[in-house]
Each structure stands twice: as C-alpha cells, then as structure tokens.
Amino acid sequence: MTGEMRILGSEGDVKVIWDCEKEDEVESARKQFKELTDKGYLAFSVKKNGEQNEKISRFDPDLEKMILVPMVRGG
Amino acid sequence: MNGVYREDSGTSSCTGVTWQSWVGSDLYHTMSVTSKTTDYTPWIVWQYKSFVQIQQPYVVPQISEEERQRREQERIRMEELAREREKKARGAEEKALQLLLENLTENQAEVYKLTEAIPVECQSGRKYHIRKGISSNVHELDEKGGTKSRLCFHPTNCPVYDVMLAQKLMLEVCEEDARKVANFS
User: Would the ipTM clear 0.90, i.e. be above it?
Assistant: First the structure.
C-alpha cells in the first residue's frame, strides 16, 4: 500500500509518495510532514470523493491522502 | 524680448508683467511673508533659463556596436525569462486545477462546472460560495442565497486553484479557524 502527501506551493503542489512497507520512505515523509507543520502548514486528510476530510496534526502513513497547505492568513 | 518667455500656464507673451501684477495685487499684500519684492528680474532670468533649456535639441546618446549587441542580448534574455516564467505559472495553474477537481464532491464538481464557484455547506449551517480568485472570493450566503459578507483568507504564494482548495478544506474542516483569520467585507 502506498501513501500520498500533496504539498501546496508557488509552483503547484509537490507530490510525496511512500510505500507503507518501507520504513525509510515512511520516515522521510514523516520528517517532511513535521518540518512543514512546525513551519505553520495545515495538514488535512482527504478522501478520493472529496468528502469526510479531516484536519490532522500527526503524520499517519496509513492515511489515503494528505494535503499540506502553507500558513493561511487574512487578506 | 516679447514673446520668448514661458509662463506657468503655458507659452505666452511675458515681460515680467505677470510677476509685477501679482506682487502688486491685493492678494500678495494680504499674505504673510517675511520679505517681498516688486523687482521682477529674477522672474525674467528664471523664465529665460527654462526657455533656453526647452529649446535645446535632444541628442541621441551614441553607443558602441559592442554595447548595442550587449543590450540586444540582454533584451532577448529577459524575454526568454519572461516566457519561461509564464510557462511555469501556466503549468502550476493546470496542476492546481487538477488537484482541486480531484478533491471536489460530486455536487461541488457539478456546480463548479456550471458556475466556476464551489458551494460549501458547513456543520455550523453556514453556506459559502468559493469563487475563482485569491482574495475576498469567499462569499458567505444568506437564507436567500445572496451574499451576506465576503471573507478574505488564503495561503501565501499559491496558484489560484490551490488557494480555492485550501479555502474549501478550511471551511469544511475548521470553519471557525478560517473565520478567525479572515477579513470580512
């Protein structure tokens, strides 16, 4: 099973994928997740049908898909 | 010397009469000034200098062939950079639109196709329409479906469709957080 994380940014999103069976891939994704959320990124767990989305604060390699959003500000 | 001086309001004949009539006017004498003069020589000198400067022909600066080539290369390089930036931005927008569409519900996708707006219904009961845009594009709807207020909140430095996706996720999942950071209009 593979996991997927989409990180929004100025050039469109960056896709990070990992194989849940491979510890090094999972660790690398976990590290990236932590670095970004420490910077203020918001993390959401999303489903393919666009419903039942959730805000998350911890990396879970078994989630279907995550979207990381840069810090949101009032305009 | 008639006819060679330029006045404030345009070109006209002036032998310092303007200055003289102004300093002699009641308006001038009612003003609080530390010193005043009825001598209009400085006025004429100043006008004459302006006239001389205006009449000097523009001389095209001479540049060497080497410099001309350097400037031409720089112009071509800048054009290439601009094209590259535009291509990159277009690619980013396409990628962002794809991601947005992947994350819409069936109903949202249908409405979006027709109106280019994403309807969001929150657990609080509030309804929003996210229109294409980056700022003040989130419309909070009233009971009749009209705009009650516009919210402005967005992630920094993202393509427009990524901004819309972020707004959708925030409203659906953490509406109060979104309303806390948003500016209302």
Answer: yes
